[in-house]
């Protein structure tokens, strides 16, 4: 193959904590399926300092940055490497993956037959049989008696017969039954006493036994693929060996692996019965509702998420949950325990990103395309700090399909930064020509109003749409976000798939932007939030763009929450502004004229959002929908919060099942499908355009 080429060159290799990163000369030997490295190019004729067999290896680009990747050999040895840039990393990763696939498939074709191994179960009895009641000193070899027989050299390996796989499958089923008996025996132990069901050693036994069974299932899956390749000559094009799903449903394992037993319907609190009795959303009014900002009151809720008590108390539940998750597993459909939840919906979290409306409104006051792009970058980077509620990483509620959230902000006009030598009132004529004046002839208020609305438009996949506008300044932003979460070992990664567009109607400009990935780190100790990834902001009309990198903390050394970026003119490729710092602390902006500006996010004033009281909210508005869960979390009653949460989720599942049976499509309320995205049904750019057309007709 043209792609099977031997490549060589210098890469940085991570050695250890003391030595750190060192330059080494690497050689990819495709014929032998080896990755070798030397001290330098001159010593290439000597014996390699290290060699990795690539057959069965896993080549993984790192999410730390765009330069790092790892080579994990089947033997367990790992090389952590760093290229000079993203392009070079991609070159090495692609060539290594091609070589790895080639030699892995070659092994599959020539794999020793299963009949050369003898398997015998030490016991096939139930949990009460002597075979299961083993002494602690016995090891795993006494459970599976595996004998490897050396084949005579030079003899051709016979093809694996299907009946061998049937035998192995039967043995696996017996082992799974014994593993279930083990789990059941542990969970039947009393909650208190000398030996309890929450004993740390027993929890570890549960976790390792589950991991062992999952690993055996994965190995069996690989054997099936190898058998198929022997029958057909090679693996089909595009075939991948993927990890299997867990055998035990996570939804029924909140407490120490046991299913939740909730009270009978008649004993449920009235609030739970109410949550379950709300009728099908499409039968409710799905007509868009105009929210009057005058009905909204300044929010007095201040739910900081710095309490670790519940997490500390429920560590055994976390251990049990981790025992059933796999690296890279999609967590979208996994029901997570209630105690890790924030006391707000994801839709409200998106609103909290708008907590600096003065910086948002000031974008359109920039005197040039360059200044407006820089102002947008400043607003963008300051939005994430307030979006988090405290330093502890907790998860917002997953919005129910059809759930909405409304709020607004009032910002005094004299608090909004304007162009040099002007003031905010100087911009008022532009909007007065397109928007109607107050019919009562009252004086204009001395504040700007920013209105916000969000809606959960899809459940699978989970997609949220949100929209914000400032009518007085002729500006609005529309975005849709699909949250994809994955298990990464001791952390959870969330990818924010989607796009947002900021419209500055006064200038006829559109700014497209994306969102970074989020990570919950150290989930077994003190969980904390980290942002990572590269985002881009572009304005086609002005020709300015911004590239922003959220850096995750390196394996060794480095700072937390670091961010770097630059704004440039695309035509000339000239950088007009550079930014660096921490997205939750201090940002430094350096301009092309040599000036430097520092923004201390911890000292920025936060404008409280305005929200309607609960009694005026609709049944599917976030705070009213989740009020009983929130109240129970505030009271520290995790069981009650779980009960209310479960009622909401069960109702959503029933509604989804009913829609599927009746083939009834879901009706959104505020957002309309537009290609791959979602757009607000009454965006400001349509309102202003209609007003301008009407004014031209009247003239």
TrEMBL record:
Catalysed reactions listed for this entry: a 1,2-diacyl-sn-glycero-3-phospho-(1D-myo-inositol 4-phosphate)(out) + a 1,2-diacyl-sn-glycero-3-phospho-L-serine(in) = a 1,2-diacyl-sn-glycero-3-phospho-(1D-myo-inositol 4-phosphate)(in) + a 1,2-diacyl-sn-glycero-3-phospho-L-serine(out)
GO terms for MF: sterol binding
UniProt feature coiled coil, ranges: none
Record-linked SMART domains: PH
Superkingdom of the organism of origin: Eukaryota
Bias kind Polar residues: ranges: 117-137, 418-433
GO biological process: lipid transport
Gene Ontology CC, one term: cytosol
Pfam families assigned: Oxysterol_BP (PF01237), PH (PF00169)
TM annotation in the entry: none
Record has Phosphoprotein as a keyword: yes
Location in or out of the cell: Golgi apparatus, trans-Golgi network membrane; Late endosome membrane
Record's keyword terms, sorted: Acetylation, Endosome, Golgi apparatus, Lipid transport, Lipid-binding, Membrane, Phosphoprotein, Transport
Residue ranges occupied by any PH domain in the UniProt entry: 4-101
The keyword Transport belongs to this UniProt entry's keyword annotation: yes
Region of interest (Disordered), residue spans: 104-137, 418-440, 638-658
Function of the protein: Plays a role in regulating ADIPOQ and FABP4 levels in differentiating adipocytes and is also involved in regulation of adipocyte triglyceride storage. Weakly binds 25-hydroxycholesterol. Interacts with OSBPL9 to function as lipid transfer proteins.
Similarity annotation: Belongs to the OSBP family.
Subunit-level organization: Heterodimer with OSBPL9.
Protein name: Oxysterol-binding protein
Native organism: Pycnonotus jocosus
